[in-house]
């Protein structure tokens, strides 16, 4: 298809999975072009391994007019060259109106056609094009070998390539660095629409407003290890394809995809709305295109299903397929819905995302298990030292099922009069980046703050308005960047947030305080960084920070700080015990 476009002096604007957008700056012989497309299709279907199997088909749509080519996305990390304009909506509809191997054009293009073109009106707006003869020599078109274009290392071009794909290409320096493969991938399709009506006289201003929102969307996607495959024109607005599991696989792809979807929905406002479909399935992942022009893309039922679910979702809603829903923890709340999905079924069971339960309670037996008394005594000593104004950091480690949670419950019961904040991180990754630190701060505020106002007012009174924007993850409240915070690097933002987090906890902890974190190893790295900062303060703080973890090495104070950590390892009782 690319070679046919190039033969007719056109260019490939962009790929869209198993489709492509092309444009022709000069007059196009529609019948001859259509005939060449069909000839190329016949050639492909007659070659191995397609010969004798289900034939590939094509739908074509076209219209004449103008469109705007805009750079959408985050100018620091990832941009997409995206066509924008009403013309695209007409082309999309024309392509959708035709049956397999038909070419449908819009009214403006029909008026431009010379009398030699054979058109059949299908309604008052659209017409079918009759295939003409392909130009001489087209039979050799598919056999031609194009010249490989040297890779351009320009930063400007790299912004238009998915970062995970770019890393793979750079790692070997070859255009074949991204190998084709089949793998299970979580697919997120998001249809977003920006209200341009208020900016009709300033289209560039409207695009800038949209890019401001997309910049936040892209930042959330990067943070959750999603790979932005592409942005495409859609029937209403545009659609965004994000992959979790391609080209890089991670253990928490399912949770990351759901978390990403909820974050994208949170960006909806009066001028920006979005709807999302989530599905999982085996996909083809690899290069698509010709030697002159190619992209990394994915194809398969998972992509089609996610796109169908996106189309069925209401605005600001997430629809999940059953296969993905079955892999999510019980804390993810969904409602069953049934849809007729084209090419899939008439009554397909799907799931509407309804929220996440933070009920992380566990069995709280109060009996001390045999063999735990020494560990219980060690925790008691640490608490007594806290009563003397000392800070104590204790990691309780042990194999799963050995009774760590039971021991903690017994310890809390023994000191029932103590100020105690307990957080269980069993599924904390569901609740977003920094959930553990955010939960600790909220509970400490509710337990120890006696003044009026809300937590945002309290935080501002401690850190000042200057630094409030970098506390967004801890407050779950978007605060506009200012001159002090806008230019901070990610490293400086984290360092400053750690410092401010310690100030906030110190302001709330004036009398002996227990902070107990169960399943600490399941919290996100950002939360780990903030919690560990409590071990780096120089002033005495009457605090016992007790983390319960399967891996004691996950709790390590800053290397420049004297060792403040005590480890209590819980072991199975001996035969005598």
Q: Mean pLDDT, nearest integer?
A: 80
Termini, distance in Å? 76 Å
Radius of gyration: 29 Å
Give me the CATH architecture of the largest domain, please.
2-Layer Sandwich
> What structural class do helix, strand and pairing data support?
alpha/beta
Describe what this molecule looks like in 3D.
With 577 residues, the protein is of the alpha/beta class. It folds into 3 domains: 1-70 and 82-144, Nucleotide cyclase, GGDEF domain (Alpha-Beta Plaits); 156-357, Alpha-Beta Plaits (2-Layer Sandwich), CATH 3.30.70; 373-569, 3-Layer(aba) Sandwich (Rossmann fold), CATH 3.40.50. 32% of the residues lie in helices and 25% in strands. The chain contains 17 helices and 21 strands. The chain has helices at 2-7, 30-45, 86-97, 107-112, 155-158, 163-172, 203-223, 253-266, 301-312, 322-325, 373-387, 404-414, 435-448, 455-463, 472-475, 490-508, 525-532, and strands at residues 11-15, 20-23, 59-62, 68-74, 78-84, 102-105, 119-121, 127-129, 181-194, 227-233, 238-244, 272-289, 294-299, 318-321, 332-341, 345-356, 392-397, 419-424, 513-518, 543-549, 565-569. Strands 9, 10, 11, 12, 13, 14, 15 and 16 form an 8-stranded mixed sheet that branches. The chain has a 5-stranded parallel sheet with strand order 18-19-20-17-21, with helices on both faces. The protein has a 4-stranded mixed sheet with strand order 3-6-8-7. Helix 13 (435-448) crosses helix 17. The longest helix has 21 residues, at 203-223. It starts with a helix and ends in an 8-residue tail after the last strand. 36% of the residues are buried. The model is unreliable at 144-155, 360-366 and 560-564 (pLDDT under 50).
């Amino acid at each position: 298809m690319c070679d046919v476009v190039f033969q007719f002096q056109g260019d490939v604007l962009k790929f869209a999975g198993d489709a492509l957008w092309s444009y022709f700056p000069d007059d196009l012989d529609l019948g001859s072009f259509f005939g060449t497309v069909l000839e190329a299709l016949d050639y492909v279907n007659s070659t191995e391994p397609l010969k004798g199997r289900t034939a590939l088909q094509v739908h074509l749509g076209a219209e004449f007019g103008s469109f705007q080519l805009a750079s959408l996305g985050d100018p620091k990390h990832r941009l997409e060259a995206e066509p924008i304009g009403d013309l695209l909506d007409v082309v999309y509809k024309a392509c959708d109106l035709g049956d397999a191997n038909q070419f449908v054009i819009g009214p403006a293009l029909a008026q431009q056609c010379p009398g030699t073109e054979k058109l059949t009106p299908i309604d008052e707006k659209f017409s079918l094009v009759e295939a003409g003869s392909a130009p001489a020599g087209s039979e050799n078109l598919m056999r031609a070998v194009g010249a490989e274009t040297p890779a351009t290392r320009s930063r400007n071009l790299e912004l238009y390539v998915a970062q995970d794909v770019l890393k793979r290409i750079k790692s070997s320096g070859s255009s074949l660095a991204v190998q084709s493969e089949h793998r299970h991938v979580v697919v997120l399709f998001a249809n977003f629409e920006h209200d341009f009506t208020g900016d009709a006289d300033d289209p560039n201003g409207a695009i800038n407003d949209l890019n401001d929102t997309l910049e936040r969307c892209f930042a959330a996607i990067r943070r959750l290890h999603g790979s932005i495959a592409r942005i495409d024109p859609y029937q209403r607005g545009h659609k965004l394809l994000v992959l979790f599991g391609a080209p890089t696989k991670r253990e928490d792809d399912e949770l990351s995809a759901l978390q990403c979807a909820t974050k994208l929905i949170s960006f909806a406002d009066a001028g920006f709305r979005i709807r999302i479909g989530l599905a999982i399935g085996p996909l083809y992942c690899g290069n698509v295109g010709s030697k002159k022009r190619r992209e990394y893309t994915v194809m398969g039922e998972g992509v089609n299903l996610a796109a169908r679910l996106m189309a069925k979702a209401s605005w600001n809603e997430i629809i999940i397929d059953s296969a993905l829903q079955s892999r999510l923890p019980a804390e993810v709340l969904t409602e069953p819905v049934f849809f007729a999905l084209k090419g899939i079924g008439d009554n397909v069971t799907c799931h509407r995302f309804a929220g996440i339960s933070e009920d992380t309670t566990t069995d709280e037996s109060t009996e001390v298990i045999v063999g735990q008394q020494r560990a219980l005594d060690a925790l008691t000593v640490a608490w007594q030292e806290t009563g003397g104004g000392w800070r104590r950091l204790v990691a309780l480690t042990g194999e799963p099922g050995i009774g760590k949670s039971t021991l903690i419950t017994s310890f809390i019961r023994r000191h029932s009069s103590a100020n105690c904040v307990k957080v269980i991180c069993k599924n904390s990754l569901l609740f977003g980046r920094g959930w553990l630190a955010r939960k600790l701060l909220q509970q400490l505020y509710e337990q120890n703050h006696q003044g009026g106002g809300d937590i945002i007012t309290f935080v501002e009174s401690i850190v000042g308005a200057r630094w409030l924007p970098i506390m967004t993850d801890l407050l779950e409240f978007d605060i506009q960047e200012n001159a002090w915070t806008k230019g901070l690097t990610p490293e400086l933002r984290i360092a400053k947030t750690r410092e401010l987090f310690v100030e906030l906890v110190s302001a709330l902890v004036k009398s002996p305080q227990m902070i107990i974190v169960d399943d600490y190893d399941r919290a996100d790295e950002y939360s780990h960084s903030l919690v560990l900062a409590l071990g780096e303060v120089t002033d005495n703080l009457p605090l016992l920070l007790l983390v319960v973890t399967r891996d004691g090495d996950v709790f390590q104070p800053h290397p420049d700080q004297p060792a403040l950590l005590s480890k209590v390892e819980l072991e199975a009782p001996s035969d005598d015990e």
